[in-house]
Design goal:
Chain B: It is found in: Endomembrane system; Membrane. The complex is a heterodimer. Chain A is of the alpha+beta class. Chain A contains nine helices and eight strands. In chain A, strand 4 and strand 5 (181-185) form a beta hairpin. Helices cover 47% and strands 18% of the residues of chain B. Chain B is α+β, with helices and mostly antiparallel strands.
């Protein structure tokens, strides 16, 4: 509008000037049907191929879970028979699964003492307020330490807090019979916690502790689960397991029926992508398929509109 | 003054005596406000409590504080108290720091002002004192070029007549001198500063008002040695204003009447305006709505919590509920959830908006295209809170004089007797005025000129007239034979020849005025006067050889054609907007003449019968008003000595009371009758640069432009035509009736015409005159009818309107239609209107700074409106509107996972995210990309090329293309005008999108990570891992979404999204690995190494990106929006520049069926339009 001879603008030379005059060089992308088609073509190729890869990998993973709380109801020690459908290759990861257990409950999640767990000495009851409501041995309900020295009920519990108190204490002994000979499967509890977590835990004084806090199973327990149904690694079986029947001798200490929960054991192998994950692969394939459909739809749309255009 | 209440006794009319000795008791001092001025609000002790208190008058801060308090109660809060207190302290600290800094500035300036020295007269002795020590009743001596320390009544002046001149630029910005004067009697008593009277003097004055030009007071003097005091009514003419400067006068003695906060300048100072835009208003309502949702969600969650606890609490032994009270716990959890859902409330939105608006204001102020060289002014933003409303204007109310026109007058024609002079001069409308350009060398100027802006331009040339004035040629000898007699026949003059008539005419011009002559440093004389018209006429007379060289109270000096001449000035009656005329009575060698000049209708009604020039002059005037010239008529009346004496007696014996002004008016009215018409003048009011083009574009942007002017109907309509407010194809409807009944009838007729126009879809313009307008404003029915028609007229012209009416018209539209209005003007008479409109724009004019001071935006010229509205306004609206929407969105996607998580954590009030992650989400990770987008985004930039290509033909096409874009640009204005972005449905859509995206993120990641082993060595995830993955996905989606909506990618945007959002986040993730005691401690490194983390982010990105792309594509298929169409052309243009040149060179036929065809046609159309337009301009 404004005639240029009247106001011959200075060409903004410096960047500062360009910013002030709002004429910075810029990229102004305008999506067109072509760019949309290309985008969706890429999406469909990526998601389809990724989905198929995930699906194949996931299919190779063996995983089985067995609920045992109902079977073992009422028995302090119970022999739980299971049957593995296929052969499992080492390493086999052995998990327990709790349902309806709210590890992510606010009261629960905060009830621990980071200082105490890291091995800090001399923490009195007053320093452990974060462990509320379970601070002393009396509240914890423990009177013997690991090495069987008696514990004063007014001394602080080591470890204190709800999380430690509710530490999962069922134990599993996997056995199988070959030619009537019962063989134990060794379940290692080493390397089951996040390596970074190991450094966070140290014992204070074994004779005052009711639990060894450097036990990896404890460390795994302390990393609270996201959901009320969760699995935690109990051990690693470093040998192949054949398809067939196994008996698991369970020390059934943990009371899940009180809160209406369930207990499971889970065998699983892994691959580069982690554990068995049907959902992920299905989701990838679905997105891939949907993207291909969209690509095709837009291609058709483009084709027909071009034909229309030519006719006109 | 801000905090303390003004004592009641200050608000009483005051009576005090002049304090001759200059001593007073404490009691007397406390009777009136002290002259010590305190504009600062705090001192060191009060700063902290007071400014804190001020901060908490903002609702947002109160809310913020409540949240922080809740967060500090451990039972309620799961979050770290610092994570809420830190931002609160930050925001408060920032605002308080600014407040403190500003107040420091006020302290400094207060101290400076209060310590300024002034001279108090104590028993005729000069005593140097400070402004702060002055009190009511003191005698003050002010010397030339000093400023007045308080509002004074002038008692005596160094000038014998009692006159003095003041410059009030610090009050109203007006540079021209204002004449003030002591009343005659007090001048006699106080005219000698060394020996003035010590007699009693008393003043009665009313409560101080804001009005600068009002003084309601009387002075009691004891005259002629008797103790009785005589009363004299005072007017604003005796009032010297604090802050104004004394000029052209050696000294004055004044009596302090108003001090400190009572002075006019202080009374005018505290006009603070806080405007908030409509978007902000709606936004605040939405925030309140969200608050309600937040509270109800918290209530819902809390009741679920109660239910869960009742059902499961005691059974879940691992929770250790021995001291169990589910109701209390769920009551706590209500507050916990208030805290957790707090992320929904976009608290930092307010801060972010402020940032963006400051940047936008900076851009406006830096814009070269809004730089006006002649005044050396960039645009100035005085209210930053309403930037985006510039993009939503539907009505512009514009003043005419000084806004559309230059307020620079050119003496074009004069009619003397029956002869028209001035036809030979060249067309000057398009030649830049030399005086305007300070950078040009001052070319040789024959006539005295000063560096200041000249109100008048003189290009008048007439050979015949010059010849006559030189005494050459025969035309001057033409007989006229005009005899002018006094009413009683005792005195008469005879004008025989044209030459004599011309002499009389120019003598009238140089005598009948209120101008004063002013000399600059180089002794160059220039005229100063109350209106540019007047200066132009005096200046013109001077250049024709009738030079006014000065005046005293009773004498006028001239240099006429080289000879000195003196006449006695008997009386002078000022021009004002109701009188519309100005007259002087002089004694010219024994002949008493009344010279009068005034508006044509006024003078015409006062002529004696049988005017010999009237017909011819009226004919010319009709022609003049058609081309938009301002015309004045000149008349003479001869008074016999008896007649004058009679008048003088009557005048002097008028009672000294408040009716005096009325009486004077009556007397002069009687005197200014029986005039003899001798001529007329036509002055051109020059249009400002690019006014017609700007108005045409504003109309194309569907903005209705209203012109409000004091001019008469014909002149106004003609100016409207010349600035394209009324274009050739417009139907013009006129309303100019003198009674309500007629008005009603006429409106009925107009309604028919109007309906007709609507039917035929014709453009229309409404012209309405002041008187009719008043009927319309006062009468509800008429108002309704008028508004219903006028609102759809492309343009409306209101003529003969007063400043108050201007504001009334604005309110008429603003209140009835609820549309965004803008008022633009340059003078004090536009202030009402500027304050009434949503957006007030003031122009740096010649009429002072009042308009600028009361405006929201100040511009150098009208043409800057183009850029301000169509570009800045348009962009700002889009930026702000989309920013607000996006803000709600990003808070939504952040809160939704928290909400759903509560279902999975037994409604226990557990936070899903780490505390500091929550704090930093709005504060850091998502802040800068949004602010950058809000600062830089543009839909179309019509200046595509920072540098044109070197190849000439390519460059020319590039330029052409830019011109084309610029031409199309106004058509995009509808975006803001129709409020198409920030709407409630759009808000719902964005919020819903946020909900869906939040759910996609939460549930997909839940399903991926639930139970699942996240690594090949078998580790399961856990809460921290889940939370981190969701949070990272949210950051990804928030950035993706803003990237999708960024239309203008500068490297700033790239940097902000990649470095200042994503990179910062990555750095923080690394930090949080080692942040002891937090949820995230020792999680990130492991998690980042797992494939599931990346696989879920890619999946989420793919799904949401894909959805957005589909929606965008469908939108493009079904709703084409002009901006992206243009953008498409821009992009194609970039690719095809060279091809286009090729094609253009070959043949126009090539354009058929190609993309360029419509473009080319538009080029042609545009060119044709430009050609047509320039032709029409030429014709005028």
């Amino acid at each position: 509008m404004e005639s240029s001879q009247q106001q011959d603008q200075k060409q903004p030379s410096s960047i500062g000037q360009a910013i002030k005059q709002q004429v910075l060089k810029a990229w102004q992308p305008v999506p067109t049907i072509n760019s949309t088609i290309i985008l969706f073509a890429i999406l469909s190729v990526y998601f389809l191929s990724m989905g198929i890869v995930l699906n194949v990998y996931s299919g190779e993973i063996n995983q089985q879970s067995f609920r045992y709380d109902a079977y073992c109801q009422g028995y302090p020690v119970c022999e739980f028979p299971i049957a593995l459908d296929t052969d499992y290759k080492a390493p086999i990861y052995f998990y327990y699964q709790l349902d309806n257990f709210y590890q992510n409950q606010r009261r629960y999640i905060t009830s621990k003492s980071v200082e105490q767990l890291s091995g800090q000495q001399g923490l009195g009851v007053g320093d452990l307020s974060t462990c509320y409501p379970v601070i002393t041995n009396g509240q914890m309900g423990k009177n013997l330490s690991i090495n069987a020295t008696p514990l004063s009920s007014n001394d602080p519990a080591i470890p204190c807090g709800l999380i430690a108190q509710s530490y999962f204490n069922d134990t599993f002994n996997i056995t199988y019979e070959v030619n009537d000979e019962v063989t134990n499967v060794t379940v290692s509890n080493e390397g089951i916690a996040w390596p970074t977590d190991l450094g966070l835990y140290a014992n204070t004084n074994i004779s005052q502790q009711w639990l060894n806090v450097t036990d990896e199973r404890f460390i795994v327990w302390m990393r609270v689960a996201a959901m009320p149904n969760f699995r935690k690694l109990w051990g690693i079986i470093n040998q192949d397991l054949q398809q067939g029947r196994y008996t698991i001798v369970i020390e059934n200490n943990y009371n899940s029926s009180a809160y209406g929960g369930k207990k499971f054991i889970v065998f699983s192998t892994t691959n580069q992508f982690g554990g068995k994950n049907e959902f992920l692969s299905v989701a990838y394939i679905c997105v891939g398929v949907a993207s291909s459909l969209v690509t095709i739809a837009f291609c058709l749309k483009k084709y027909f509109s071009r034909v229309d255009h030519k006719k006109l | 003054m801000f905090w303390s209440k003004r004592p009641d006794f200050f608000n009483q009319p005051r009576q005090f005596e002049g304090n001759f000795k200059g001593e007073r008791t404490q009691e007397e001092l406390e009777q009136y406000p002290s002259n010590f001025i305190k504009t600062s609000r705090y001192n060191i002790v009060t700063f902290l409590p007071k400014s804190l208190l001020l901060q908490f008058t903002r609702y947002a801060n109160i809310y913020f504080l409540c949240i922080a308090i809740i967060q500090c109660i451990p039972v309620l809060s799961t979050l770290n108290p610092f994570s809420a207190i830190a931002p609160l302290v930050f925001v408060l600290g920032l605002s308080m720091g600014r407040e403190g800094w500003e107040d420091y500035g006020r302290h400094v300036s207060d101290n400076e002002v209060n310590a300024t020295e002034c001279v108090i007269m104590k028993s005729r002795q000069m005593k140097v004192s400070t402004w702060a020590e002055l009190a009511v009743g003191d005698f003050v001596l002010v010397k030339q070029d000093e400023s007045f320390p308080a509002d004074l009544i002038v008692l005596g002046s160094a000038i014998q007549s009692g006159a003095c001149y003041i410059e009030t630029s610090s009050l109203d910005g007006e540079k021209n001198l204002k004449p003030k004067s002591a009343i005659l009697e007090s001048q006699q008593l106080y005219g000698d500063k060394n020996n003035y009277t010590d007699k009693k003097i008393r003043v009665e004055a009313q409560v101080p008002t804001q009005n600068l030009y009002e003084l309601d007071a009387s002075l009691f003097l004891s005259i002629e040695n008797d103790e009785k005091l005589r009363k004299f009514q005072l007017t604003a003419k005796q009032l010297l204003l604090r802050g104004a400067f004394l000029r052209n006068t050696e000294w004055v003695i004044g009596l302090v009447v108003y001090t400190g906060q009572d002075t006019k300048i202080m009374r005018n100072a505290d006009a603070s305006r806080i405007k908030s835009s409509e978007i902000e208003r709606i936004m605040n309502i939405l925030i309140l709505g969200i608050l309600v949702i937040q509270i109800s969600l918290s209530i819902i969650t809390a009741s679920f919590s109660s239910a869960w606890l009742h059902q499961n609490g005691s059974e879940s032994w691992y929770l250790g509920y021995n001291d169990f009270s589910p109701n209390l716990l769920s009551f706590y959890s209500f507050f916990s959830y208030i805290l957790l859902y707090n992320t929904m409330i976009p608290i930092s939105l307010i801060v972010s908006l402020e940032f963006v608006k400051v940047f936008q204001a900076y851009f406006i102020e830096q814009d070269e295209e809004m730089y006006v060289q002649s005044r050396d002014k960039y645009a100035k933003v005085q209210t930053t809170t309403i930037n985006e409303e510039l993009g939503q204007i539907e009505y512009i109310f514009s003043d005419k004089t000084g806004t559309l026109t230059c307020n620079q007058m050119e003496f074009k024609y004069c009619i003397i007797g029956n002869t028209l002079y001035g036809q030979e001069q060249q067309q000057t409308n398009n030649i830049p005025v030399q005086n305007l350009d300070p950078k040009r060398p001052q070319s040789a100027k024959v006539h005295p000129t000063s560096e200041v802006f000249q109100h008048s331009v003189f290009n008048f040339q007439d050979m015949e007239l010059s010849a006559i004035l030189k005494g050459e040629g025969s035309q001057g000898e033409q007989p006229v034979n005009l005899i002018i007699q006094s009413s009683d026949g005792k005195q008469q003059i005879q004008i025989q020849k044209q030459r004599n008539l011309i002499d009389e005419y120019f003598f009238l011009l140089s005598s009948a005025h209120e101008c004063i002559i002013q000399y600059d440093k180089n002794q160059n004389a220039s005229y100063q006067g109350p209106s540019p018209d007047e200066i132009t006429l005096v200046d013109a007379a001077a250049r024709m050889g009738f030079q006014f060289t000065g005046a005293s109270a009773s004498e006028q000096n001239f240099k006429i054609l080289g000879r000195e001449k003196k006449v006695k000035l008997l009386k002078s009656f000022e021009f004002d907007s109701t009188r519309k005329r100005m007259s002087v009575i002089i004694d010219d060698n024994g002949v008493i003449k009344l010279f009068i000049k005034g508006a044509d209708n006024i003078i015409k009604g006062r002529l004696s019968p049988n005017q010999i020039f009237l017909n011819q002059i009226v004919n010319y005037l009709d022609d003049f008003s058609k081309v938009g010239l301002r015309c004045l008529l000149m008349g003479i009346r001869i008074l016999s000595n008896e007649e004058y004496r009679e008048f003088d007696n009557a005048y002097n014996n008028l009672p000294d009371n408040d009716k005096r002004a009325e009486e004077v008016e009556k007397l002069t009215n009687n005197l200014e009758q029986n005039l003899t018409l001798i001529g007329a003048s036509a002055v051109e009011d020059k249009l400002q640069q690019l006014v017609p083009e700007t108005i045409a574009d504003l109309l194309r942007a569907n903005i209705k432009v209203w012109m409000l002017t004091g001019d008469k109907l014909e002149t106004a309509e003609n100016i409207a035509k010349s600035c394209r407010l009324i274009q050739g194809d417009f139907t013009v409807m006129r309303l100019s009736e003198s009674s309500v009944e007629e008005c009603k009838k006429k409106i009925g007729d107009i309604q028919e015409t109007y309906d007709h126009c609507i039917k035929e879809n014709r453009k229309k313009s409404f012209v309405v005159e002041g008187q009719s307008l008043q009927f319309v404003i006062d009468n509800e029915d008429l108002a309704q009818a008028f508004v219903s028609m006028a609102k759809d007229c492309e343009s409306v012209v209101c003529c003969r309107v007063t400043p108050k009416q201007k504001a009334d018209v604005v309110r008429l539209i603003k209140d009835r239609l609820n549309k965004i209005t803008l008022a633009i003007g340059d003078g004090a008479n536009d202030v009402n209107m500027i304050q009434a409109a949503h957006i007030g724009v003031g122009l740096y004019g010649n009429e002072g700074m009042r308009a600028v001071q009361s405006s929201d935006f100040a511009l150098g010229e009208f043409r800057c409106l183009w850029r301000l509205l169509l570009v800045h306004g348009h962009w700002n609206y889009i930026r702000i509107a989309e920013m607000v929407l996006y803000f709600f969105y990003k808070n939504m996607i952040f809160t939704v996972p928290q909400f759903f998580f509560s279902y999975f954590c037994a409604f226990s009030g557990q936070s899903f995210f780490d505390d500091w992650y929550i704090t930093f989400y709005n504060l850091i990770f998502t802040a800068l990309p949004l602010i950058m987008r809000g600062t830089f985004d543009q839909d179309i930039n019509y200046r595509q090329h920072v540098q044109y290509e070197e190849k000439e033909d390519v460059a020319s096409v590039q330029k052409k293309f830019e011109e084309y874009l610029k031409y199309k640009f106004p058509t995009l204005y509808y975006v803001g005008q129709s409020k198409s972005i920030f709407t409630i449905p759009n808000y719902m859509l964005w919020a819903f999108t946020g909900l869906v995206h939040g759910m996609i993120i939460y549930f997909f990641i839940l399903w991926i990570l639930d139970y699942e082993i996240v690594e090949d060595n078998g580790f399961p995830g856990g809460l921290a891992a889940f939370s981190l993955t969701v949070y990272s996905s949210i950051i990804l989606i928030a950035d993706l979404k803003i990237a999708i909506h960024t239309k203008y990618w500068t490297w700033f945007n790239f940097v902000c999204i990649t470095f200042l959002s994503i990179l910062l986040y990555i750095i923080y993730v690394i930090i949080s690995q080692f942040w002891p005691g937090t949820l995230m401690e020792y999680t990130p490194f492991t998690m980042v190494g797992t494939p599931h983390f990346w696989l879920s982010m890619i999946l989420i990105g793919g799904i949401i990106g894909g959805l957005e792309a589909i929606i965008a594509q469908l939108q493009r298929e079904f709703f084409t929006d002009p901006a992206s169409e243009m953008l498409f052309k821009v992009n194609t243009f970039g690719l095809n520049q060279n091809k286009f040149i090729e094609l253009k060179e070959k043949n126009q036929k090539q354009f058929k069926d190609s993309f360029w065809e419509p473009l080319y046609k538009q080029y042609q159309q545009q060119n044709e339009e430009v050609i047509k337009f320039s032709q029409s301009q030429h014709a005028e």
